[in-house]
# Entry
Amino acid sequence: MGTEFANKHIGCTVKNCEYHCCNDNYCSLDRIEVGTHEGNPTQSQCTDCLSFKEKCC
Ligand code: SF4
# Structure
């Protein structure tokens, strides 16, 4: 299920996420939670969108 709503304050290219705006590279949520899987993050790859939800069929 995709969504038509684009929150222009949150750009995102993760098309596999349930909350990705299907028409553009934006998130559809009002807010997201960002975290890290590293003990001492040093680059952008160390951070994660914790609001991610796998897109279902
Ligand atoms: S929840 Fe996170 S990964 Fe999913 S569309 Fe929004 S910003 Fe992207």
Summary: Residues 10, 12, 14, 17, 19-20, 27, 29, 32, 49, 51-52 surround iron/sulfur cluster (CB under 6 Å).
